[in-house]
Protein backbone atom coordinates (compact mmCIF):
# COMPACT_ATOMS: atom_id res chain seq x y z
CA UNK A 1 0.00 0.00 0.00
CA UNK A 2 1.21 3.48 -0.76
CA UNK A 3 1.13 6.39 1.60
CA UNK A 4 -1.18 9.29 0.89
CA UNK A 5 -1.15 12.98 1.68
CA UNK A 6 2.01 14.13 -0.10
CA UNK A 7 0.07 16.58 -2.29
CA UNK A 8 -1.09 19.78 -0.60
CA UNK A 9 -4.82 20.45 -0.42
CA UNK A 10 -6.13 23.30 -2.58
CA UNK A 11 -7.40 25.87 -0.12
CA UNK A 12 -9.04 29.09 -1.27
CA UNK A 13 -9.64 31.80 1.36
CA UNK A 14 -12.35 34.42 0.99
CA UNK A 15 -13.95 37.22 3.00
CA UNK A 16 -15.28 36.78 6.54
CA UNK A 17 -13.55 33.49 7.20
CA UNK A 18 -14.75 31.78 3.99
CA UNK A 19 -12.62 28.72 3.17
CA UNK A 20 -13.00 26.53 0.09
CA UNK A 21 -11.40 23.10 0.41
CA UNK A 22 -11.19 22.64 -3.31
CA UNK A 23 -10.65 19.49 -5.35
CA UNK A 24 -7.78 19.06 -7.79
CA UNK A 25 -8.25 19.60 -11.52
CA UNK A 26 -6.33 18.08 -14.42
CA UNK A 27 -5.16 21.58 -15.36
CA UNK A 28 -3.33 21.81 -12.00
CA UNK A 29 -0.62 19.63 -13.47
CA UNK A 30 -1.22 19.50 -17.24
CA UNK A 31 -1.10 22.77 -19.13
CA UNK A 32 -2.88 23.73 -22.36
CA UNK A 33 -5.63 21.12 -22.13
CA UNK A 34 -8.30 21.72 -24.78
CA UNK A 35 -11.90 22.13 -23.60
CA UNK A 36 -15.14 21.09 -25.28
CA UNK A 37 -18.72 22.19 -25.10
CA UNK A 38 -20.89 20.03 -22.83
CA UNK A 39 -22.98 17.67 -25.00
CA UNK A 40 -25.83 18.02 -22.49
CA UNK A 41 -26.52 21.39 -24.13
CA UNK A 42 -28.08 19.59 -27.07
CA UNK A 43 -29.60 16.75 -25.04
CA UNK A 44 -33.41 17.10 -25.26
CA UNK A 45 -33.80 16.13 -21.60
CA UNK A 46 -31.53 18.87 -20.33
CA UNK A 47 -31.58 21.65 -22.89
CA UNK A 48 -34.87 22.93 -21.47
CA UNK A 49 -33.65 22.98 -17.86
CA UNK A 50 -33.03 26.52 -16.65
CA UNK A 51 -29.61 26.91 -15.05
CA UNK A 52 -28.79 23.28 -15.60
CA UNK A 53 -25.07 23.97 -15.43
CA UNK A 54 -23.53 24.56 -12.07
CA UNK A 55 -21.95 27.97 -11.63
CA UNK A 56 -18.19 27.65 -11.16
CA UNK A 57 -18.46 29.71 -7.97
CA UNK A 58 -21.13 27.56 -6.30
CA UNK A 59 -19.91 26.04 -3.06
CA UNK A 60 -21.61 24.29 -0.17
CA UNK A 61 -20.96 25.15 3.45
CA UNK A 62 -19.99 22.33 5.80
CA UNK A 63 -21.49 23.69 8.99
CA UNK A 64 -25.00 25.10 8.76
CA UNK A 65 -25.60 25.96 12.39
CA UNK A 66 -23.93 29.34 12.86
CA UNK A 67 -24.01 32.32 15.15
CA UNK A 68 -24.19 35.90 13.97
CA UNK A 69 -20.46 36.44 14.40
CA UNK A 70 -19.31 33.02 13.21
CA UNK A 71 -16.78 32.91 10.37
CA UNK A 72 -18.31 31.61 7.13
CA UNK A 73 -16.31 28.40 7.54
CA UNK A 74 -15.32 25.49 5.33
CA UNK A 75 -17.01 24.97 1.96
CA UNK A 76 -16.87 22.30 -0.72
CA UNK A 77 -17.28 22.65 -4.46
CA UNK A 78 -20.83 22.00 -5.62
CA UNK A 79 -21.20 18.90 -7.79
CA UNK A 80 -22.99 18.86 -11.13
CA UNK A 81 -22.56 19.44 -14.86
CA UNK A 82 -20.22 22.17 -16.11
CA UNK A 83 -20.39 24.21 -19.32
CA UNK A 84 -16.91 23.15 -20.45
CA UNK A 85 -15.63 19.57 -20.66
CA UNK A 86 -12.02 18.44 -20.46
CA UNK A 87 -12.75 15.19 -22.29
CA UNK A 88 -14.30 14.65 -25.69
CA UNK A 89 -16.90 11.86 -25.69
CA UNK A 90 -14.91 9.68 -28.11
CA UNK A 91 -11.75 10.11 -26.14
CA UNK A 92 -13.13 8.74 -22.85
CA UNK A 93 -12.12 5.27 -21.76
CA UNK A 94 -13.59 4.79 -18.29
CA UNK A 95 -13.29 2.00 -15.76
CA UNK A 96 -15.20 1.12 -12.60
CA UNK A 97 -13.94 -0.89 -9.63
CA UNK A 98 -15.63 -1.92 -6.37
CA UNK A 99 -13.54 -2.69 -3.27
CA UNK A 100 -14.04 -3.65 0.39
CA UNK A 101 -17.16 -5.24 1.88
CA UNK A 102 -20.57 -5.40 0.24
CA UNK A 103 -23.17 -2.70 0.66
CA UNK A 104 -26.70 -2.31 -0.73
CA UNK A 105 -26.64 -0.09 -3.81
CA UNK A 106 -23.26 -1.03 -5.31
CA UNK A 107 -24.89 -2.30 -8.49
CA UNK A 108 -27.06 0.80 -8.75
CA UNK A 109 -23.98 3.02 -8.64
CA UNK A 110 -22.26 0.88 -11.30
CA UNK A 111 -25.38 1.00 -13.49
CA UNK A 112 -25.77 4.74 -13.20
CA UNK A 113 -22.11 5.51 -13.93
CA UNK A 114 -22.37 3.42 -17.10
CA UNK A 115 -25.73 4.91 -18.15
CA UNK A 116 -24.62 8.43 -17.21
CA UNK A 117 -21.50 8.16 -19.35
CA UNK A 118 -23.35 6.63 -22.30
CA UNK A 119 -26.57 8.62 -22.26
CA UNK A 120 -25.48 12.02 -20.96
CA UNK A 121 -22.01 12.24 -22.50
CA UNK A 122 -22.04 9.84 -25.46
CA UNK A 123 -19.17 7.77 -24.04
CA UNK A 124 -19.06 4.18 -25.24
CA UNK A 125 -15.96 2.69 -23.69
CA UNK A 126 -16.52 1.60 -20.08
CA UNK A 127 -14.65 -1.30 -18.46
CA UNK A 128 -15.49 -3.12 -15.25
CA UNK A 129 -12.47 -4.21 -13.21
CA UNK A 130 -13.02 -7.68 -11.84
CA UNK A 131 -12.58 -8.31 -8.09
CA UNK A 132 -11.40 -5.05 -6.53
CA UNK A 133 -8.02 -3.33 -6.71
CA UNK A 134 -6.06 -6.49 -7.42
CA UNK A 135 -8.26 -7.01 -10.51
CA UNK A 136 -6.39 -4.17 -12.24
CA UNK A 137 -3.32 -6.32 -12.61
CA UNK A 138 -4.41 -9.91 -12.02
CA UNK A 139 -7.86 -10.39 -13.55
CA UNK A 140 -9.80 -9.88 -16.74
CA UNK A 141 -11.96 -6.86 -17.35
CA UNK A 142 -15.65 -6.82 -18.30
CA UNK A 143 -17.10 -4.54 -20.99
CA UNK A 144 -19.98 -2.51 -19.52
CA UNK A 145 -22.81 -1.14 -21.65
CA UNK A 146 -26.29 0.11 -20.68
CA UNK A 147 -27.61 -3.25 -21.89
CA UNK A 148 -25.23 -5.26 -19.68
CA UNK A 149 -26.12 -3.23 -16.59
CA UNK A 150 -29.81 -2.76 -17.30
CA UNK A 151 -31.20 -4.94 -14.50
CA UNK A 152 -28.33 -5.09 -12.06
CA UNK A 153 -29.77 -2.60 -9.56
CA UNK A 154 -32.31 -5.26 -8.59
CA UNK A 155 -29.55 -7.54 -7.31
CA UNK A 156 -27.52 -7.35 -4.12
CA UNK A 157 -23.72 -7.45 -4.13
CA UNK A 158 -21.59 -6.14 -6.97
CA UNK A 159 -21.56 -7.62 -10.46
CA UNK A 160 -17.87 -6.73 -10.62
CA UNK A 161 -16.85 -8.65 -7.51
CA UNK A 162 -14.85 -7.09 -4.72
CA UNK A 163 -11.89 -7.88 -2.48
CA UNK A 164 -9.78 -6.69 0.42
CA UNK A 165 -6.02 -6.22 0.21
CA UNK A 166 -4.01 -6.33 -3.01
CA UNK A 167 -3.54 -2.61 -3.45
CA UNK A 168 -0.30 -2.27 -5.41
CA UNK A 169 -0.23 1.36 -6.52
CA UNK A 170 2.35 1.11 -9.28
CA UNK A 171 0.90 -2.04 -10.79
CA UNK A 172 -2.57 -0.46 -10.74
CA UNK A 173 -1.39 2.77 -12.40
CA UNK A 174 0.66 0.77 -14.93
CA UNK A 175 -2.49 -1.15 -15.81
CA UNK A 176 -4.53 2.08 -16.11
CA UNK A 177 -1.89 3.55 -18.39
CA UNK A 178 -1.37 0.39 -20.49
CA UNK A 179 -5.09 0.02 -21.12
CA UNK A 180 -5.46 3.68 -22.09
CA UNK A 181 -7.98 4.32 -19.30
CA UNK A 182 -8.52 8.04 -18.60
CA UNK A 183 -11.40 8.05 -16.08
CA UNK A 184 -11.29 5.80 -13.01
CA UNK A 185 -14.41 5.43 -10.85
CA UNK A 186 -13.61 3.81 -7.51
CA UNK A 187 -16.45 2.66 -5.26
CA UNK A 188 -15.55 1.68 -1.71
CA UNK A 189 -15.16 2.52 1.96
CA UNK A 190 -12.52 4.34 3.95
CA UNK A 191 -9.74 1.93 2.95
CA UNK A 192 -10.75 2.14 -0.69
CA UNK A 193 -10.73 5.95 -0.65
CA UNK A 194 -7.20 5.85 0.84
CA UNK A 195 -6.25 3.56 -2.04
CA UNK A 196 -7.92 5.92 -4.53
CA UNK A 197 -5.98 8.83 -3.08
CA UNK A 198 -2.60 7.18 -3.65
CA UNK A 199 -3.64 6.13 -7.16
CA UNK A 200 -4.51 9.76 -7.90
CA UNK A 201 -1.18 10.94 -6.49
CA UNK A 202 0.78 8.45 -8.59
CA UNK A 203 -1.20 9.39 -11.73
CA UNK A 204 -0.44 13.02 -11.06
CA UNK A 205 3.24 12.29 -10.41
CA UNK A 206 3.38 10.60 -13.82
CA UNK A 207 1.55 13.57 -15.41
CA UNK A 208 -1.23 11.40 -16.90
CA UNK A 209 -4.52 12.84 -18.14
CA UNK A 210 -6.60 10.51 -15.97
CA UNK A 211 -9.45 11.65 -13.70
CA UNK A 212 -9.90 9.68 -10.46
CA UNK A 213 -13.34 9.85 -8.80
CA UNK A 214 -14.31 8.11 -5.57
CA UNK A 215 -17.83 7.12 -4.62
CA UNK A 216 -17.97 6.47 -0.87
CA UNK A 217 -19.47 3.11 0.05
CA UNK A 218 -19.82 2.08 3.63
CA UNK A 219 -22.64 0.30 5.32
CA UNK A 220 -21.14 1.41 8.65
CA UNK A 221 -21.50 5.12 7.70
CA UNK A 222 -17.94 5.63 8.91
CA UNK A 223 -16.86 8.11 6.21
CA UNK A 224 -16.60 11.65 7.59
CA UNK A 225 -17.96 14.93 6.17
CA UNK A 226 -20.84 13.40 4.17
CA UNK A 227 -24.38 13.37 5.55
CA UNK A 228 -24.64 9.59 5.25
CA UNK A 229 -23.47 6.83 2.99
CA UNK A 230 -25.55 5.00 0.41
CA UNK A 231 -26.95 1.65 1.56
CA UNK A 232 -27.25 2.87 5.13
CA UNK A 233 -31.02 3.39 5.00
CA UNK A 234 -31.47 -0.04 3.45
CA UNK A 235 -29.33 -1.62 6.16
CA UNK A 236 -31.30 0.07 8.93
CA UNK A 237 -34.56 -1.01 7.33
CA UNK A 238 -33.45 -4.63 6.95
CA UNK A 239 -32.18 -4.69 10.54
CA UNK A 240 -35.79 -4.06 11.63
CA UNK A 241 -36.69 -7.57 10.52
CA UNK A 242 -34.08 -9.13 12.79
CA UNK A 243 -35.02 -6.91 15.72
CA UNK A 244 -38.67 -7.70 15.18
CA UNK A 245 -37.94 -11.44 15.21
CA UNK A 246 -35.90 -11.04 18.39
CA UNK A 247 -38.76 -9.14 19.98
CA UNK A 248 -41.40 -11.70 18.98
CA UNK A 249 -39.24 -14.53 20.36
CA UNK A 250 -38.44 -12.66 23.57
CA UNK A 251 -42.03 -11.66 24.19
CA UNK A 252 -43.32 -15.20 23.77
CA UNK A 253 -41.21 -16.87 26.46
CA UNK A 254 -40.79 -16.35 30.17
CA UNK A 255 -37.82 -14.06 30.79
CA UNK A 256 -37.19 -13.93 27.06
CA UNK A 257 -34.06 -12.12 25.95
CA UNK A 258 -33.38 -11.37 22.27
CA UNK A 259 -29.83 -10.43 21.30
CA UNK A 260 -29.24 -9.03 17.80
CA UNK A 261 -25.76 -8.34 16.47
CA UNK A 262 -25.47 -5.72 13.74
CA UNK A 263 -22.51 -4.53 11.67
CA UNK A 264 -20.37 -1.64 12.79
CA UNK A 265 -16.70 -2.30 13.29
CA UNK A 266 -15.73 1.08 14.74
CA UNK A 267 -18.96 3.08 14.27
CA UNK A 268 -22.31 2.17 15.77
CA UNK A 269 -24.60 4.08 13.40
CA UNK A 270 -26.53 1.05 12.13
CA UNK A 271 -27.21 -0.15 15.67
CA UNK A 272 -28.17 3.35 16.83
CA UNK A 273 -30.57 4.05 13.96
CA UNK A 274 -32.03 0.54 13.92
CA UNK A 275 -32.72 0.92 17.65
CA UNK A 276 -34.32 4.33 17.28
CA UNK A 277 -36.43 3.11 14.37
CA UNK A 278 -37.63 -0.05 16.08
CA UNK A 279 -38.79 1.06 19.58
CA UNK A 280 -38.63 -2.61 20.65
CA UNK A 281 -35.02 -2.37 21.77
CA UNK A 282 -34.25 -1.99 25.47
CA UNK A 283 -30.52 -1.65 25.16
CA UNK A 284 -28.18 -0.63 22.32
CA UNK A 285 -24.46 -1.18 22.67
CA UNK A 286 -22.00 0.45 20.27
CA UNK A 287 -18.20 0.58 19.94
CA UNK A 288 -18.05 4.27 20.88
CA UNK A 289 -19.74 3.80 24.25
CA UNK A 290 -17.93 1.62 26.79
CA UNK A 291 -20.07 -0.58 29.02
CA UNK A 292 -19.58 -3.17 31.74
CA UNK A 293 -21.47 -6.25 32.80
CA UNK A 294 -21.24 -6.81 36.53
CA UNK A 295 -22.12 -4.69 39.53
CA UNK A 296 -24.13 -1.59 40.16
CA UNK A 297 -25.14 0.24 36.98
CA UNK A 298 -23.88 -2.67 34.83
CA UNK A 299 -25.65 -4.51 32.03
CA UNK A 300 -26.66 -7.53 34.14
CA UNK A 301 -28.36 -5.31 36.69
CA UNK A 302 -30.27 -3.56 33.90
CA UNK A 303 -31.35 -6.87 32.34
CA UNK A 304 -32.65 -8.06 35.73
CA UNK A 305 -34.60 -4.82 36.08
CA UNK A 306 -36.15 -5.04 32.60
CA UNK A 307 -37.11 -8.69 33.06
CA UNK A 308 -38.78 -7.83 36.36
CA UNK A 309 -40.62 -4.86 34.84
CA UNK A 310 -41.47 -6.23 31.44
CA UNK A 311 -40.86 -9.99 31.39
CA UNK A 312 -38.65 -9.73 28.31
CA UNK A 313 -36.00 -7.56 26.68
CA UNK A 314 -34.16 -6.96 23.39
CA UNK A 315 -30.48 -6.03 23.16
CA UNK A 316 -28.89 -4.72 19.95
CA UNK A 317 -25.14 -4.88 19.86
CA UNK A 318 -22.80 -3.56 17.16
CA UNK A 319 -20.08 -6.03 16.26
CA UNK A 320 -17.31 -3.69 17.44
CA UNK A 321 -18.85 -3.02 20.85
CA UNK A 322 -17.25 -4.40 24.00
CA UNK A 323 -14.16 -5.76 22.22
CA UNK A 324 -12.06 -4.63 25.20
CA UNK A 325 -14.17 -6.85 27.49
CA UNK A 326 -13.84 -9.79 25.12
CA UNK A 327 -10.10 -9.61 24.91
CA UNK A 328 -9.96 -9.55 28.72
CA UNK A 329 -11.84 -12.82 28.98
CA UNK A 330 -10.90 -14.58 25.72
CA UNK A 331 -7.40 -14.80 24.43
CA UNK A 332 -7.08 -11.93 21.98
CA UNK A 333 -6.63 -13.15 18.42
CA UNK A 334 -5.04 -9.98 17.04
CA UNK A 335 -5.67 -11.20 13.54
CA UNK A 336 -6.19 -8.88 10.60
CA UNK A 337 -7.91 -9.20 7.25
CA UNK A 338 -6.09 -8.72 3.92
CA UNK A 339 -6.63 -4.94 4.11
CA UNK A 340 -5.21 -4.69 7.64
CA UNK A 341 -8.58 -4.32 9.41
CA UNK A 342 -8.66 -6.01 12.81
CA UNK A 343 -10.72 -9.22 12.75
CA UNK A 344 -13.29 -9.00 15.50
CA UNK A 345 -14.44 -11.73 17.84
CA UNK A 346 -18.16 -12.51 17.94
CA UNK A 347 -19.38 -10.18 20.64
CA UNK A 348 -23.00 -11.33 20.26
CA UNK A 349 -22.15 -14.93 20.98
CA UNK A 350 -19.85 -13.97 23.83
CA UNK A 351 -22.43 -11.71 25.40
CA UNK A 352 -25.18 -14.33 25.07
CA UNK A 353 -23.00 -16.82 26.89
CA UNK A 354 -22.11 -14.37 29.65
CA UNK A 355 -25.80 -13.55 30.20
CA UNK A 356 -26.68 -17.25 30.39
CA UNK A 357 -23.90 -17.93 32.89
CA UNK A 358 -24.94 -14.96 35.01
CA UNK A 359 -28.58 -16.06 35.26
CA UNK A 360 -27.60 -19.70 35.85
CA UNK A 361 -25.66 -18.49 38.89
CA UNK A 362 -28.75 -16.74 40.26
CA UNK A 363 -30.89 -19.78 39.35
CA UNK A 364 -33.18 -17.64 37.16
CA UNK A 365 -34.64 -19.36 34.11
CA UNK A 366 -34.16 -17.25 31.01
CA UNK A 367 -34.85 -17.90 27.32
CA UNK A 368 -32.19 -16.23 25.25
CA UNK A 369 -32.24 -16.18 21.44
CA UNK A 370 -29.24 -14.84 19.57
CA UNK A 371 -29.78 -13.53 16.04
CA UNK A 372 -26.84 -12.63 13.80
CA UNK A 373 -28.25 -11.11 10.59
CA UNK A 374 -25.06 -9.19 9.70
CA UNK A 375 -24.41 -10.47 6.16
CA UNK A 376 -28.12 -10.65 5.34
CA UNK A 377 -28.33 -6.91 5.93
CA UNK A 378 -25.58 -5.93 3.54
CA UNK A 379 -26.19 -8.49 0.79
CA UNK A 380 -29.60 -7.18 -0.27
CA UNK A 381 -30.40 -4.71 -3.08
CA UNK A 382 -30.88 -1.10 -2.07
CA UNK A 383 -34.29 0.30 -1.19
CA UNK A 384 -36.03 3.05 -3.15
CA UNK A 385 -34.46 5.97 -1.31
CA UNK A 386 -30.94 4.51 -1.60
CA UNK A 387 -31.52 3.81 -5.31
CA UNK A 388 -32.26 7.48 -5.89
CA UNK A 389 -29.28 8.45 -3.77
CA UNK A 390 -26.95 6.07 -5.68
CA UNK A 391 -28.18 7.49 -8.98
CA UNK A 392 -27.38 11.05 -7.98
CA UNK A 393 -23.96 10.12 -6.59
CA UNK A 394 -23.05 8.28 -9.79
CA UNK A 395 -24.19 11.18 -11.97
CA UNK A 396 -22.27 13.67 -9.83
CA UNK A 397 -19.12 11.56 -10.23
CA UNK A 398 -19.54 11.45 -14.02
CA UNK A 399 -20.15 15.21 -14.29
CA UNK A 400 -17.05 15.87 -12.17
CA UNK A 401 -14.71 13.62 -14.14
CA UNK A 402 -15.98 14.94 -17.51
CA UNK A 403 -15.31 18.48 -16.26
CA UNK A 404 -11.69 17.53 -15.51
CA UNK A 405 -11.91 17.34 -11.72
CA UNK A 406 -9.88 14.57 -10.15
CA UNK A 407 -8.80 13.31 -6.72
CA UNK A 408 -12.28 13.79 -5.32
CA UNK A 409 -15.00 11.87 -3.56
CA UNK A 410 -18.62 12.69 -4.29
CA UNK A 411 -20.79 13.20 -1.26
CA UNK A 412 -23.88 14.89 0.06
CA UNK A 413 -23.16 17.67 2.55
CA UNK A 414 -26.19 19.30 4.14
CA UNK A 415 -28.41 17.82 1.44
CA UNK A 416 -26.34 19.11 -1.50
CA UNK A 417 -24.06 17.10 -3.76
CA UNK A 418 -20.42 18.14 -3.50
CA UNK A 419 -16.90 17.22 -4.56
CA UNK A 420 -14.73 16.62 -1.50
CA UNK A 421 -10.93 16.27 -1.69
CA UNK A 422 -9.73 12.77 -0.83
CA UNK A 423 -7.65 14.07 2.09
CA UNK A 424 -10.78 15.20 3.88
CA UNK A 425 -12.56 11.86 3.71
CA UNK A 426 -9.57 9.72 4.63
CA UNK A 427 -8.16 11.70 7.54
CA UNK A 428 -10.48 10.15 10.14
CA UNK A 429 -13.47 7.90 10.59
CA UNK A 430 -16.98 9.11 11.26
CA UNK A 431 -18.16 7.87 14.65
CA UNK A 432 -21.19 8.27 16.85
CA UNK A 433 -20.40 11.10 19.25
CA UNK A 434 -21.74 9.94 22.58
CA UNK A 435 -21.81 13.49 23.90
CA UNK A 436 -24.01 14.54 20.97
CA UNK A 437 -27.77 14.98 21.22
CA UNK A 438 -28.51 11.98 19.00
CA UNK A 439 -27.03 9.48 21.45
CA UNK A 440 -28.90 11.21 24.27
CA UNK A 441 -32.09 10.75 22.26
CA UNK A 442 -31.36 7.06 21.98
CA UNK A 443 -30.69 6.72 25.69
CA UNK A 444 -33.93 8.45 26.51
CA UNK A 445 -35.81 6.28 24.03
CA UNK A 446 -34.50 2.96 25.41
CA UNK A 447 -34.12 4.15 29.01
CA UNK A 448 -30.93 2.15 29.24
CA UNK A 449 -28.12 3.24 31.57
CA UNK A 450 -25.36 5.24 29.87
CA UNK A 451 -22.69 3.02 31.52
CA UNK A 452 -20.45 6.08 31.55
CA UNK A 453 -18.40 7.38 34.39
CA UNK A 454 -17.30 11.04 34.39
CA UNK A 455 -13.86 10.02 33.03
CA UNK A 456 -15.47 8.48 29.92
CA UNK A 457 -17.49 11.64 29.32
CA UNK A 458 -14.36 13.80 29.51
CA UNK A 459 -12.59 11.48 27.06
CA UNK A 460 -15.57 11.51 24.70
CA UNK A 461 -15.77 15.31 24.78
CA UNK A 462 -12.13 15.52 23.72
CA UNK A 463 -12.92 13.48 20.62
CA UNK A 464 -15.97 15.56 19.73
CA UNK A 465 -16.13 16.85 16.16
CA UNK A 466 -18.58 18.92 14.11
CA UNK A 467 -21.76 16.88 13.75
CA UNK A 468 -22.84 15.43 10.44
CA UNK A 469 -26.52 15.30 9.53
CA UNK A 470 -26.77 11.79 10.92
CA UNK A 471 -25.39 12.92 14.24
CA UNK A 472 -27.41 16.02 14.89
CA UNK A 473 -30.56 14.32 13.80
CA UNK A 474 -31.53 16.29 10.70
CA UNK A 475 -31.55 13.05 8.74
CA UNK A 476 -32.87 13.42 5.24
CA UNK A 477 -34.08 10.12 3.91
CA UNK A 478 -34.14 11.35 0.36
CA UNK A 479 -31.27 13.74 -0.20
CA UNK A 480 -32.15 16.72 -2.33
CA UNK A 481 -30.85 17.01 -5.86
CA UNK A 482 -27.73 18.94 -6.81
N1 LIG B 1 -3.95 2.97 3.37
C1 LIG B 1 -4.25 2.36 2.22
N2 LIG B 1 -3.53 2.62 1.09
C2 LIG B 1 -3.83 2.02 -0.07
N3 LIG B 1 -4.82 1.10 -0.22
C3 LIG B 1 -5.56 0.80 0.85
C4 LIG B 1 -5.32 1.40 2.13
N4 LIG B 1 -6.24 0.89 3.01
C5 LIG B 1 -6.98 0.01 2.32
N5 LIG B 1 -6.59 -0.05 1.02
C6 LIG B 1 -7.15 -0.91 -0.02
O1 LIG B 1 -8.52 -0.58 -0.20
C7 LIG B 1 -9.29 -1.76 -0.44
C8 LIG B 1 -10.48 -1.80 0.47
O2 LIG B 1 -10.10 -1.60 1.84
P1 LIG B 1 -10.90 -2.27 3.05
O3 LIG B 1 -10.90 -3.75 2.88
O4 LIG B 1 -10.38 -1.71 4.30
O5 LIG B 1 -12.40 -1.86 2.78
P2 LIG B 1 -13.11 -0.46 2.81
O6 LIG B 1 -12.92 0.22 1.52
O7 LIG B 1 -12.69 0.29 4.03
O8 LIG B 1 -14.63 -0.89 2.89
P3 LIG B 1 -15.42 -1.42 4.18
O9 LIG B 1 -14.51 -1.40 5.35
O10 LIG B 1 -16.56 -0.46 4.32
O11 LIG B 1 -15.88 -2.77 3.81
C9 LIG B 1 -8.35 -2.94 -0.26
O12 LIG B 1 -8.06 -3.46 -1.55
C10 LIG B 1 -7.13 -2.36 0.41
O13 LIG B 1 -5.92 -2.99 0.00
O1 LIG C 1 -16.45 -10.23 6.59
P1 LIG C 1 -16.02 -9.08 5.77
O2 LIG C 1 -16.37 -9.17 4.34
O3 LIG C 1 -14.59 -8.72 5.98
O4 LIG C 1 -16.85 -7.82 6.25
C1 LIG C 1 -17.09 -7.49 7.58
C2 LIG C 1 -16.94 -6.01 7.79
O5 LIG C 1 -17.50 -5.25 6.76
C3 LIG C 1 -18.15 -4.11 7.28
O6 LIG C 1 -19.50 -4.23 7.03
C4 LIG C 1 -17.67 -2.89 6.58
O7 LIG C 1 -18.02 -3.03 5.23
C5 LIG C 1 -17.86 -4.11 8.76
O8 LIG C 1 -18.90 -3.63 9.55
C6 LIG C 1 -17.59 -5.56 9.01
O9 LIG C 1 -16.75 -5.75 10.12
MG1 LIG D 1 -13.34 0.21 6.06
From TrEMBL:
Q: Which domain of life is it from?
A: Eukaryota
Q: In which pathway does it act?
A: Carbohydrate degradation; glycolysis; D-glyceraldehyde 3-phosphate and glycerone phosphate from D-glucose: step 3/4
Asked if the keyword Disulfide bond belongs to this entry, the reply reads: no
Which cofactors does this gene product need? Mg(2+)
- Write the record's keywords in alphabetical order, separated by commas: Allosteric enzyme, ATP-binding, Cytoplasm, Glycolysis, Kinase, Magnesium, Metal-binding, Nucleotide-binding, Transferase
Under Pfam families, the record lists:
PFK
Alphabetical GO CC annotations of the entry are: cytosol
Q: Where is this region: Disordered?
A: 450-482
Quickly give the catalysed reaction: beta-D-fructose 6-phosphate + ATP = beta-D-fructose 1,6-bisphosphate + ADP + H(+)
Q: What does the entry list as the binding residues for substrate? A: 218-220, 263-265, 319, 375-378
Give its E.C. classification number: 2.7.1.11
Q: Where is this site: Important for substrate specificity?
A: 191
Query: Gene3D superfamilies from the entry?
Result: 3.40.50.450
Q: Which residues bind Mg(2+)?
A: 190
* Metal-binding found in the keyword field: yes
Top-level enzyme category: transferase
Q: Which segments show compositional bias classed as Basic and acidic residues?
A: 453-465
For this protein, the activity regulation entry reads: Allosterically activated by AMP.
Q: Which SUPFAM superfamilies match?
A: Phosphofructokinase (SSF53784)
Q: Where found in the cell? A: Cytoplasm
Q: What does this protein do?
A: Catalyzes the phosphorylation of D-fructose 6-phosphate to fructose 1,6-bisphosphate by ATP, the first committing step of glycolysis.
Family note: Belongs to the phosphofructokinase type A (PFKA) family. PPi-dependent PFK group II subfamily. Atypical ATP-dependent clade 'X' sub-subfamily.
Assembly: Homotetramer.
Q: Which named protein is this?
A: ATP-dependent 6-phosphofructokinase
Originating species? Rhamnella rubrinervis
Amino acid sequence: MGSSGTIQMKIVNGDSGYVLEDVPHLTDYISDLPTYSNPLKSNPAYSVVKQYFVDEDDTIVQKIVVHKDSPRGVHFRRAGPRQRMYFESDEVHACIVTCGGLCPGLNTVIREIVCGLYHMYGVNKVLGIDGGYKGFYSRNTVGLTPKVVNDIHKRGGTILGTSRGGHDTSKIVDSINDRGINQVYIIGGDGTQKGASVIYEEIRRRGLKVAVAGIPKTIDNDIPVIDKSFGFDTAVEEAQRAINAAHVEAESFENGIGVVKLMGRYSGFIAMYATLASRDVDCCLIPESPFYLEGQGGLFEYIEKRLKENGHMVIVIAEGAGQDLLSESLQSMNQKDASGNKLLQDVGLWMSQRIKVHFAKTKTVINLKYIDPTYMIRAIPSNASDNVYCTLLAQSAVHGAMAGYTGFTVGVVNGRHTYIPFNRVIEKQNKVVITDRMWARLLSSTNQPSFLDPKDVTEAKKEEEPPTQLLDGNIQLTPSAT
